Amino acid sequence: MEVNSEVKTERGTTVNRRDPVARRKRIRRLKMLIVAIGSVLVIMPTVLSLIALMQIRTIDRRLGETQSVLIEIAGRLETVSAPQAAESEDMLEADSEEEEVTVSQDMLLSGGPAYGTLNADENVIDDSVYYDESIKKVCLTFDDGPSEHTDEILDILAEYDVKATFFVTGHEGMEDRYRRIACEGHTLGMHSWSHDYTELYADVDAFAEDFEKLHSYLYDVTGVDSRFFRFPGGSSNRVSKVPITYYIDYLDDGGYSYFDWNASAEDAVKGTKSSDQIVKEVLSQIESRDTDTIVVLMHDAPGRQTTVDALPEIIEGIQAMDNTVIVPITDKVKPVRHVEEQ
After folding, report:
1. Per-residue pLDDT tens for 89-103?
2. CATH architecture assigned to 115-326
3. What phi and psi values does residue 102 have, to the nearest 5 degrees?
4. How far is it, in rounded angstroms, from Cα 262 to Cα 116?
C-alpha cells in the first residue's frame, strides 16, 4: 500500500516531503531561526547593562552636583548663624545664676527630677579629699524623717552651706519635704518604708517588699534613684529572724550600698539629751575617732527639737577642727559598717 508523500503548499505548489533538498532547506531555516533567537538572548542583557550603566553615571553626576550645592548652602548658613550663636551664649552666661535657681524651684514644685540642681556650684569638694587619709570626712546623717523638723534642719544646713544625708522612711503627705531634701543637694537615702522591725525583718521577701516600696515611692516623688540604705537598728541589730547577711546580699545584688555609723547624738529616745549634751557628745566622738571617715547618727523625728537646736553648734564645732570637712554620703565615701559583707 503506497503512502501519499506529496503535500500541497499555501502557494498551491506540491512538495514531496521525502524530497531531500526540501528537507535540508527546512532544517537550515530552523537553524537560522535558533541562531537568531540565541543571538538576541545573548546580546540583549549586554545592551540593557550598557543602558543601565549610562543611567547610573548620569545619576552619580547629578548627585555630585547636588552635594556641592548643599555644602555651599551649609557654609552660608554657618556664616550667618555664628554671630547669633555667640550672642545667645553670652545671654545664657549672663543669666545663668538666676536661671539655675528658677529651674530648681520649678522642679521642686512640680516634683520632677531635681537631685543636686540647687546651688550646684557651691560647697564642691575636690575628689582628692575623699582619698586623703589625713583629712577627716564627717557625714551628718538624719534617720526617720521627714518630720515637722525637716524644714528647720534644711534651713540650718543651708545657712552654713553644708550638705547632709537623710535616711528617710515612708511618710505619705510629706512629698514637698522629700523634694526639698533632694533639690537642695542633700543625699536621699533609705531607712525602710515601715520602720517596723517585726514586719521588716520577718524574712528576705518581706524585707524586699518594704525596700522596693520605699525606693519606688522616692523615685516617683523626687526622680532620685536612691542607692544608699541604713538598716533600722543598724546592720548589727539583734531583731532580725534571719542572718543580716541575707539582707546585705539582697542589697549587694541590686547594686545598693548600706551605711551604719561610728558616732551618735544618742537622741534615739526623745527628751533624754539636752542640746548642750548632744553637742558635747557628737564633737567629742568626732575628735576621738582614729579614722578618716566619721558618720554621725542623728534623728529627724517628732520630739527631737533638742537635736535641731544642737545642730548649729555641731556644724560650727566641726568646721573649727583642723583638716576636717563635712560631706554628704556618696559613692566616694568609704562605708562605715557594723557588719561587713560576707
Report:
1. 555 554 544 443 333
2. Alpha-Beta Barrel (3.20)
3. -60, -45
4. 26
**What CA–CA distance (Å, rounded) separates 279 from 99?**
38
Whole-number Å distance between alpha carbons of 329 and 223: 18
User: For residue 191, what are the CA distances in angstroms to 16, 100, 145, 176?
Assistant: 115, 31, 9, 18
Amino acid in position 47: V
pLDDT tens-digit profile of 59-72?
Answer: 877 776 676 666 66
Q: What is the pTM of this model?
A: 0.66
Residue 35 C-alpha cell reads as 541562531
